[in-house]
Every structure is written in C-alpha cells, then in structure tokens.
Design brief:
Helix content is about 45%, strand content about 15%. The chain is an alpha/beta fold and about 240 residues long. The protein has one domain: 3-Layer(aba) Sandwich (Rossmann fold). Strands 4-3-2-1-5-6-7 form a seven-stranded mixed β-sheet. The longest helix has 13 residues.
Amino acid sequence: MLKPPVYIFTDFDGTITREDLGDKMFEVFGKFSEYYPRLTSGELTVPEYWHLLAASITSETTPEMLRSWANEQPADEHFRGVVQFCREKNIPLTVVSDGFDVYIDAVLEREGAGELPRFCNQLLYNNGAFTPFFPGRDESCTCFCASCKRNSVLRSVPPEALVIYIGDGYSDFCAADHADIIFAKKALAAYCNHNRLPHYPFSTFADVQTILVQLLERRRLKYRHQATLRRKEAFETE
C-alpha cells in the first residue's frame, strides 16, 4: 500500500464501457424510449424510472439472456491495463455504479476483473418478472441517482485515504466532490469546470494510466483540501 494510502474508484457505464449499458439494455429488452423523456423532464425520479423500466422488460427475457447480451458489449480496451497496474502497485480499485449487477458482473468477468469490489443496483428476477433493488439508496443524496456513490466511496476507505475518482456522468457528482484526484469526461467534466473542481480530462483508460504513472513517479499524489474537509465531515456524522 502506498503512503498516503491510495484508493481508486471508477464509474462503470460510459467509463469502463463505451456506452451506457443500462440505457442500452432497456432499449433492447424494455421501453427505454417511453420512459427516458419522463426522467429527463423531471416527472420521474431515478428509482421510479428504474422500476418502470424493469417492469417493461419483455416476459420472455431471462437473466441469462441479459448476461449473454452484456457479454457482447465492448469495454474500453485500456481498462484491463489499469486493472493490472493497480494489482502491481497494490492499489485498491473499486467499481461504483448506478447501473445493475446483471450486466456489470458479466462485463467485469469477461475483462478479467471479476474479483474487483463493486457497488451497484441489483436487478432481481422472480416468476418471470424483474424488479430493481437499490442497496446504496440514500434519500439525502442530491445526485441524479438511485445508488449513492459518495456513500460507497466513504464506506470503503479509512479517514487517511487519498481518493481517486474516475467518471463521466451525473451520478458521479457527489463522489467527485469528495475525491482528491478526479478523472472526468462528458457531464462530470462539465460539472468540474462549472464548480472549479481541479480534474484531469480523459478519453480512455490509457489517459488515466499515463497520468497515474506520472503522478506516482513525481510523487505528486496530494490531498485536495476541500475533499479532505468533506470526508472529515462525513466521517464525523456517521
């Protein structure tokens, strides 16, 4: 373990994978186009949206079919390199997602990363019907999510941890606020720019690995003051 102890957390949809597999899965097997406009208009909360989409999955669909479909979806071709880098450096790497275990586990296993800890929603199956379950739900979280990534991060690290976060979307905002080093693209990069959060823009995990190597070699892994304060406040309220 490095000193200070480094912990890396990464989003899944659109970060490890090239596309948002949650949305894409329900395009293929459910009624994504019917419910997504109601989510973006504010008519539905994220949990309500997931419940409706899960109920819309066609009756002939099985969990095995969903896993088989997920296994065909491409991932960032450089993700494996970062997984191996973390293994070699003994840096804990954890996946945090507002997506579902049924496709996340399939992709991680295919990419040789099935042993990674992951926090995500669950898609339960019983008597031919799917139901979402949100073990990471936090009613106080203001992010656009059903699974609070901030809480998943904070519950996984000691108070002295240096937290690195990698993400791309709305559900990553609160976790990034509590991270010392942020890798961001798309909506998360826009959020960081708007809120003046220092971050490293990236396109693929190759960019992430290059910068991580440089930070380690130059010993520039440093705490971010505001993130440290936020984590301290969160630990004190636990």
